[in-house]
Amino acid sequence: MNGISLTEEYINIVKEDQNKYYEDYKKAVEKVANSNAKYKGKPVPFLYQPMFFTEQDIENFIRIGNTLISIANKVTGKYIESPRYREKFRYPKLLEELILVDSGYDMNIPIGRFDIFYYGNDKFKFIEVNTDGSSGMNEDNILAKVLLETESMKKMKEKYNITYFELVDKWVEECIKTYNKFDKKVEKPNIAIVDFKESGITAEFEEFKKAYIKKGYRAEIVDPRDLKYIDGSLYFNEMKIDLIYRRIVTVEFIEKSKEIPDLINAYIDGAVCVVGSLKSQIMHNKIIFKILHDRETLEFLTEEETKFIKDHIPYTEEFSGDRKVFDEVLNNKDKYIIKPVDSFASQGVYAGVDLTQDEWKEVLGKSWNQDCLFQEFIQPPVRPFVQFKKGGLKIEDFKLNIGAFMYNETFAGLYTRISKDNIIFGREGYYSIPNMLVKEK
Q1: Whose C-alpha in 109, 129, 130, 253 is 20 to 30 A from the C-alpha of 413?
Q2: DSSP code of residue 379
Q3: Which pLDDT band holds residue 201 (cuts at 50, 70, 90)?
Q4: 315-377 domain in CATH 3.30.2010?
């Protein structure tokens, strides 16, 4: 039993009675439309099929996550202790200062989502590392609950024990565990889920707010511009804030830093616990893939960790400097992708294989010496999925992007997006697919 054989088994079930399952699919669509699985007010697109994972897959993800966390902690430690090593990251002065602030607890990456192309067992390649702003928990869990009640999954459950990865309540518990290590903790912290209102995923934040309240905490969704630092305490209106669940991505935090002086000053003074701290940016920034391959980094890692990087972290370099670099990328477009050093939602990411030579040349011209990276192109894994088009059943291959959530350095669950494209652009052009753990009965 593996993910592919389970997928084939599921597709055969749907094929047996297409009309029955199409009617059932329509019910699932209605349930999702009436749920809180929304982005910018619209239901998250999904298909009538989950991703199936086995216990062996989960063991693989645990091992992958543990190794990357070990590397991340060593890199973070080196950044903190070595001014010369910090220069590799070329962070603005404010960000460097904030990274060096003591967070008041001992966890460098309280929450992360490591996106990978996973082919099974030891065959995988990293796409990127997300720390601050990691998302997708709510939509995965809602879609999983809906699909688990479909007729097709009821058929699968006759043979297997099938569960999903609960990601919302679990994060609330882990967030509080981190807070309890904070050197200025209080018994019952007031919690702010903080992001800029124009950027935040409101529906997901609402679910986290409900989960904190259900655990007995006072919680609010807060724009950081509405926070006030008064007499050594941070406030949202009359509510004193003890714990911030930070959903602001660091690049936006720094870009809008002049709009949030109260939050920054409270953070520097250690007046509030921010989960996660700005240290998480060390692994979040896309230049980390280049830095991981640098000799200076490999020197302080173990032999196993060095092999892990060489086997699973795509070759990455800065797209600048010697004109030979430009010519290499230009003349071998199908071998490379271009991406900004720091962005989110796949903004500004291009795969040469998707473009004509003239289009590629234009992209490279705009990207040269503009804080961009070039990276080896990795062919994504594919898997067949069922689709109902005008009531008819279609089986089509989609490319997989799997994110492994780590809460407090421990594997927590998965988030899968599928697309026909090599690059998933932002929150559009893909389907969100819930993830199921399958065990033999």
Answers
A1: 253
A2: P
A3: confident
A4: no
